UniProtKB/TrEMBL annotation:
Subcellular location: Membrane
Protein's organism: Arboricoccus pini
Transmembrane residue ranges: 12-35, 41-59, 71-93, 113-132, 153-171, 177-194
NCBIfam families in UniProt: CDF
Protein name: Cation diffusion facilitator family transporter
Amino acid sequence: MSRTLKVASGSIAVGILVLGLKYLAFVLTGSVALYSDALESIINVATAIGAVIAIHVAEKPADAGHPYGHFKAEYVSAVVEGVLVVLAALSILREAYLGWLHPAAIATPFTGLLINGLATVINACWGIFVIQRGRVWRSPALVADGRHLLTDLYTSIGVIAGIFMVAATGWLVLDSVIAGLVAVNIIWSGFSMIRDSLGGLMDEAVPKETLRRIESVIREQAASTALQAHDLRTRQAGPMTYLDFHLVVPAYMTVARAHAVCDAIEQALHEDLESCVVSIHVEPEENAHEHARLTF
């Protein structure tokens, strides 16, 4: 089992633990806001399971039917997670509306807050860890899972504050108001997850910082032998970066020498980006572009 898959599997266990604690808090209090928090934890478990499946598929080696690998499976998982998050929020909005119509007193609020607070701390620690690992390992599924957990953190803090206010003021309707605000925040998070994942499915270019690194590597490796590089294109699929460009070399350069220059550039890019596929089209100097971005 890969390190990414181990972390994703850990999210399932953490999600079940947090769900149990939050549901217990809801049972003890009867709070609509705490119910909304517990419902989101059910989605946490479901999305963690989806992330495990997606990562398992994404890690399969390339085959005849998928010569570029299965990396985009993680983006599909992240989109599904976003949709589930939005559906959960709509369910919470329904409960908040019913609670608004028929407000009820909250039983044992401070016991419920204590249990919910413990679940929130567990979620926060695990969510931060998952996002860090997902960014380092460039796993969209892990990042989406971690962001979902942190969304749960923010909403849980809001719920805890709201329940405390209900207990302190006796304004029962605040319970439903807090649940409604939680739902709105969750909807925003869900749409953000969907938007970011669709960017990967649509072959979005690498971030500007990564592009500058790529250009720097090409410049360092080719400055003494080639004339320029142009038409650089990039895209990402999970942990893999794909890039291609045209390399203009002097007309007198032999094929063997040009091939050696390309090998050196590819090797340097592999060392810098770790996981990448590089395609270089060699051209003679008469094909140089007047306004090429990388002129040596």
